[in-house]
Amino acid sequence: MNTPISWIKAYVPDLDCTVQEYVDKMTLSGSHVENAVYLDKNLEKIVVGRIEKIEKHPDADKLVICQVNVGDEEVQIVTGASNVFKGAMVPVVLDGGRVAGGHDGSPNPENGIKIKKGKLRGVPSYGMMCSIEELGSTRDMYPEAPEDGIYIFDESKDVKPGDDAVAALGLRDAVVEFEITSNRVDCFSMIGMAREAAATFEKPFYAPEVKEVGNNEKAEDYISVEVEATDLCPRYTARIVKNIKLAPSPEWMQRRLAAMGIRPINNIVDITNYVMEEYGQPMHAYDLNKIRGHKIVVKRANDGDVYTTLDGQERKLDKDVLMINDAEGPVGIAGIMGGENSMITDDIQTMLFEAATFDGTNIRLSSKRIGLRTDASGKFEKGLDPENALEAINRACQLVEELGAGEVVGGVVDVYPNPVEDVKIPFEPAKYNKLLGTNVSEEKMMEYFDRLEIGYDKETNMLLIPSFRQDLRCSADIAEEVARFFGYEHELTDMVYGFNIEELLLAGVYQKEKISEMFAGHDVFHPLHHGAVVYFHGKLRKIADQTKAYELAGNEAVVKPWIFYKTGETVVEYGPNPYLALYYMETESREKLDEVTEYFFDKMSMTDPDGQEIAYRNQIPDYFITEE
To answer: What's the CA gap between 229 and 297, in Å, rounded?
Structure first.
């Protein structure tokens, strides 16, 4: 999940930290960071300049000499760009500055390109005016940039000579890539990651203020919806927008999408993409005039059906593929891709917006069988929160009105026969502390829960789980929330899952049966949270290729460092070389856990607290590595 920090700050405006501080703290609260890309990498001493005067070069027909106001001075720059003109506001890299790369499309050098004053055909030049490619971006991300020439700020852009050109272009930002586990569906959205950031940094979270906009008409007068396969489509919402006005989306939206790697197209397409990234809720738009009978029917396909999708490819269907139909036939494959026969064109007048929830497993299997996986199916297959659909479609319609992209018809067609039931979990603080080996007060736990939007009913002593947290279903899940906000980096007691660490260490690899016996009957063996314990003294061996572990655990395993401890006088540090680590695996059965645990014990090199090797039963396979 790519998350531009500037977008996160739209919901957590009080977030004030460096990129590295953000990465470190988010990692410690349980959000694993894969990568952080600085959009302003190698962009130094680049300001906005205004071209005040242009003269022909005396000795070169293709060069011109520009006098450029850069705020506190006027500099002379020789350029071969053909699109310069007097009064143009352009990005200028000054003498001694640096750009990301060249404009020829070749890979950017690691350390960029340093710009020095010099002479071009005998005329002094004290800097360079920049193309968008030289600033490390592309025309896909900045469609207003010329195909060949320097970037010129639009007249509507509020810039003046001397301003930070990199900031003006929205490049003073970083995109942090998180590896999201499949159970945290809420984190496959900007709002979800912003909630995590707010909870981690203890800052207020501000969700978008969404209103149900619309005129005095009723959507149900334009479209009717029937869901036959309610087992595969828990919720289907539809809204109507008429008098569509296609145009470029505003710069702020284009920049946010560009930072996510999504090329801006037009206001309608960009709104659907924006809401998908913001809420994690894919949307689809149909030309209402192509919906025969102005009716939507959600039902299974028939064995042997063939349907042509938007990409022009014929897809062979079967009875388990869910389809979106109109009154006469299919108009899209649910949760995967729309159809060629219902595609939106530039002459669209009235549009049907769809935001639905489909069975995640069905979407994943259907996508595989028909050979088509899309951004939308990648989100649907995780199993989305049905409560999110209405908020997302109202957000999209609100943006339509704000951007002047059309007239929203009032009302929503909402087919939601079986609303999700509220999840409640007993509040058992003593149990959490025993599981974790901590001594966190009830008040502190309640502080964590408040930050996570987990409610509490004092009368029944039940925790009220928000619908977007589909991963919280039992006491072990709540204990993990306590652990990650108590802080994995903090010193814990000498108890792990209520057992003495020294006793656990002494049990050793040859007495793994004793470890299993110690844990038997405790929550560590909850059906969704079986625990496999492995300890290392010295170097920590990490999994380089999880393929084998996934195979052993039925492709459902999640293996990750969980908690680090202090033993004796040795402080265990969070990093590549902790002395003791607890790993847990999510598996479906006790038998599968035993198999995976035995594999670890058999394959891993184990040493005692004095550093002496006590077991090396088999050669360590190449999918394990030793961190240096």
So the answer is: 9
Angle between helices 429-436 and 442-451 (to 10 degrees): 90
Angstrom distances, CA of residue 347 to CA of 143, 336, 403: 22, 24, 18
In which region does residue 35 sit, left (phi positive, over 0), alpha (psi from -120 to 50) or beta (all else)? beta
Report the half-sphere exposure of 494 (CA within 13 A, side-chain side).
10
Place of tokens 């959205």: 189
Residue 409 one-letter amino acid:
V
Give the pLDDT score at 138.
87
Task: Encode pLDDT of 527-544 as tens digits.
Answer: 222 233 333 222 223 333
Residue closest to 259 by CA, chosen among 280, 273, 279 = 273
> Is the pLDDT reported for residue 360 higher than 50?
yes
Residue 309: how many CB atoms within 10 A of its CB?
Answer: 20
Ranges of H-type helices in 138-243: 165-168, 190-201
The answer to whether the CB of 83 falls within 8 A of the CB of 145 is no
d(CA 414, CA 462): 31
**Which pLDDT does position 416 carry in this prediction?**
97
Rounded CA separation 540/371 (Å):
40
Place of tokens 């497993």: 361
Q: Is 343 helix (H, G, I), strand (E, B) or coil?
A: coil
Q: Percent of the chain having pLDDT more than 70?
A: 77
Share of the chain above pLDDT 90, in %: 62
Query: Which among 239, 237, 236, 238 has a CA at the least distance from the CA of 215?
Result: 239
Locate 127 and state its tokens.
């800097």
Q: What is the pLDDT of residue 233?
A: 97
Contacts of 515 (CB under 8 A, 6+ apart): 504, 507, 533
Distance CA 574, CA 34 (A): 16
Give 130-168 pLDDT, tens digit per residue.
Answer: 999 999 988 888 888 998 899 999 888 889 999 999 999
Residues 6+ apart with CB under 8 A from 552: 592, 595, 596, 599
Question: Which whole number is the average pLDDT over 268-278?
Answer: 95
Tens digits of residue pLDDT in 36-89: 999 999 999 999 999 999 999 999 989 999 999 999 999 999 999 999 999 999
pTM of the prediction? 0.76
- Report the 3 state secondary structure along 218-262: CHHHCCEEEECCCCCCCEEEEEEEECCCCCCCCHHHHHHHHHCCC
d(CA 62, CA 47): 25
Longest dimension (CA), the chain: 89
Token pair in block for residue 1: 């999940």
